[in-house]
Model the fold of this input.
Amino acid sequence: MLQVRAPDPSPQPYTKAPGTEPLPGYVLIEPLGRGGFGEVWKCEAPGGLHKAIKFVSGDTESITSDSAQLSQELDAFQQVKAIRHPFLLTLERVELVGNELIMVMELADRQLGDRLHECQQAKLPGIPRDELVGYLREAAEALEAAGEPDAVLRLYLTPGREGSGEPVSLALVSTLPGDLDERRARGISLISLLGVRAEAPWLLGGVKSTSYAVNMAAESEARARGADDAVFVRDDGVVLEGPVTNLWWRRGSKLFTPSLELGILAGVTRAAALEAAPAAGYEVVEGAYPLSELLEAEEVFTTSSVREVMPVVRVDDRPFERGPGADALQAALRGMATA
Done:
C-alpha cells in the first residue's frame, strides 16, 4: 500500500509570468521548476525554437550566502558556456541583469518514457518497432565497443541539434565500479549537506544532466569528511536525496522515502523499489520528512541504477545497524532484472 504525505511548506509562487520577455526575443511559455533561490521556465527563443531559461536571484555586491552562491554559479556557468561537444547541451547565454542571473540553454525535457507515452496517446501499442530497434542497436554497438563484461549503459533521447528537426539518440557505456559488492557488504556512511540543491531547485534536480557539478562537489565534500556519500537537506531540515541516489529508511514494516513533490529525481530504481516493496512485506510511505526523523529510523539505505540498493551504516554521527529491508529489496530488484 502506498501512502503520500503532502510536502510542507506550501510551494512558493512563481515570480515570472507566461508571455513576458526577460530578454529581448525570449518569450516565457510555462514554468518547469522552482525553489527558494530561483526558477526555470520553458521559453520560445528567436526563430521559434524552444529553450530552457533559468533565473537566479541574489546580489553580487553583498556577502550573504545567497549572493556568494550567485557569484559562484555565474563563474561556473561562464566556464561551462565555453564547452562545445556534440553530446552536451549548450549554454547559449549567461547574463547578469540587475541582481538576477539569467541563463539560456538548450531544452532537453523529454525522456524515452515520454516518447512511449506520446506513442500510446497516438493509439499506438508502443514506440514503433524500427525506431525502438534503432535505439537497441545503438545500445548493442556501444556495449560491444566498450568490451566490458559488467558495464553501465545509459540511453539518451534529445531533440537534436538546433535547426536539424531530427531527434538524436545516444548510447553511452562506462565501467561498473568494481567495489560495489564490497561496499554493499560493509555498508556506507553519509553526511548531510545543506547546499545548492536545497536552496536552488531551479537546477532541475530531476534532470541529471544539469546537476553533475553540484553532485561532484557534494561527493568530494563527503570524502573530505571521511564519508562515502552525501544526503541533501533543505534549509528547513527536510531530507531530499543523495547526489545520485534516492534515500530510504525503515521503521518496523514501513519504508519511508522523500516524495517526488519535493523536486527530487524520479529514479528508475526508486520506482522499481516502490513496485517491489509490497511483495517483500513492506508498506511504503512517501512524504516530506525532517532529518531528525530519518535519524530515528531502524535502518537506512539508498537506491540508484548503478549501485542498486546500498545499506547505510552511519549518517553524520548516528550509527545504524544493517537491517532486512535493504537485503529484501536488493534480492527483489535482482529478481526483476533476471525475470
Summary: Residues 112-175 form one domain.
